[in-house]
């Protein structure tokens, strides 16, 4: 089968579940900049000696940051604010979020666990509404990219 020639954000399915509720993030006002998943640490490091000999070290860390960007007028901002506020009421509620993001057309799949909100988004009130960025840290991120074959 030939490799796919088109990508669409409309194929993305993303949800967040944690203490206080759950929300489908891929519906209801995502900004053009969408959702970013970035690993926190490098997976390896390298040390070289004075004689040029070297050593690689493999790190077990799987942590990362997910940033969800919503339009200023998205109703999802209120839902995320309610989750944020609820989870701040007790340490037992912090770090319990689970986020899943997939593109079933391509086979991409991200499972993010043990997540917590980093902070409230900056709230800019200006001529243009702009976006609200919701950063969340996750201790475990398991990622799988599809093989490029459309799952029809």
Task: List descriptors.
45% strand, mainly beta, seven-stranded antiparallel sheet, two-stranded antiparallel ribbon, 152 residues
Question: How is this structure best described in words?
Answer:
The protein is mostly beta strands and 152 residues long. The protein has one helix and nine strands, in the order E-E-E-E-E-E-H-E-E-E. The termini are close together.
Number of strands: 9
> What's the overall geometry?
globular
What's the quaternary structure here? single chain
What integer value in Å does the Rg equal? 18 Å
Helix content: under 10%
Mean pLDDT: 92
Catalogue the unreliable spans: none
Q: What profile does the largest beta sheet have?
A: 7 strands, antiparallel
Euclidean distance between termini CA atoms: 12 Å
Q: What fraction of the residues are assigned to beta strands by DSSP? A: over 45%
Helical/strand content category: mainly beta
Spatial order of the strands forming the largest sheet: 2-1-7-8-9-6-3
- Secondary-structure element sequence? EEEEEEHEEE
Q: What is the helix tally?
A: 1
List the SSEs and their pairings.
Blueprint: E1 13-18, E2 21-24, E3 30-39, E4 44-48, E5 54-58, E6 64-71, H1 76-87, E7 97-103, E8 108-117, E9 131-144
Antiparallel strand pairs: 1-2, 1-7, 3-6, 4-5, 6-9, 7-8, 8-9
Outline of the structure:
With 152 residues, the protein is mainly beta. The protein is 8% helix and 45% strand.
């Amino acid at each position: 089968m030939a490799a796919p020639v088109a990508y669409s954000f409309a194929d993305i399915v993303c949800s967040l579940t944690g203490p206080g509720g759950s929300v489908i993030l891929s519906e209801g006002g995502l900004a053009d900049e969408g959702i970013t998943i970035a690993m926190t640490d490098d997976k390896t490091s390298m040390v070289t000696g004075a004689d040029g000999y070297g050593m690689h070290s493999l790190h077990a860390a799987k942590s990362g940051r997910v940033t969800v960007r919503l339009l200023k007028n998205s109703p999802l901002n209120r839902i995320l604010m309610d989750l944020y506020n609820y989870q701040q009421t007790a340490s037992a509620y912090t770090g319990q979020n689970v986020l899943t993001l997939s593109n079933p057309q391509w086979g991409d799949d991200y499972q993010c666990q043990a997540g917590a909100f980093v902070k409230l988004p900056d709230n800019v009130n200006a001529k243009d509404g702009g976006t609200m960025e919701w950063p969340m840290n996750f201790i475990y991120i398991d990622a799988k990219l599809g093989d490029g074959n459309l799952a029809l």
